[in-house]
Amino acid sequence: MFKRLAATAVVLALSAAPAFAHLNPEEHGSFMAGVSHPLFGLDHILAMVAVGLWAALLAQSEDRRALWLVPSAFVGTMCLGFLAALLGLPLPFVEPVILASVVVIGLLAAVALNVPTGMAMALVGFFAFFHGHAHGGELGRATALSYGMGFAISTALLHIVGIAIGLGLGRVVGRGTGRTATRIAGGATALAGIWLVLAG
Description:
Number of helices: 9
Shape: globular
Distance between the termini: 31 Å
Largest sheet: none
Low-confidence stretches: 1-21
Radius of gyration: 16 Å
Number of domains: 1
Helix content: over 70%
């Protein structure tokens, strides 16, 4: 059942036309437009779930605080990137860096790289700034505060999905096998990121 739902979600994400990918704030409200924004971009989904996967791996071997500090660093720095876009501050290579974030964070999970929590926060924060800037660049007619709250909550939920996968696999199949499966999921994320780069 879960595999079918996951496959359906991926197919829907891949088939979403860019022009209609996000909810219209005039029809659905700025908050819901913000919530929808990360959910209709496969690059955003993959990167944010990968952050959760890596945080789960770090929490199992390095520092339990990584479970919430690493995702929090992503959400917080993403909001700073959003603010920078609202202020009209230019940022080069936004889309390439977002695509790179999928590959890099996926690889970090795939190799289960153990680094101090502060370094992990800085790594994901770097990429998060670009994700936030992209959200700000596509604000349109939405109200900034409501829109920002929407995509921040949506992003946090995607992190939680990654964490749930990382921790849940360990409980279902055993910690060692679950850790391996989580790393494989990270590798699959990186491969999907490479596919997005080549497809673009």
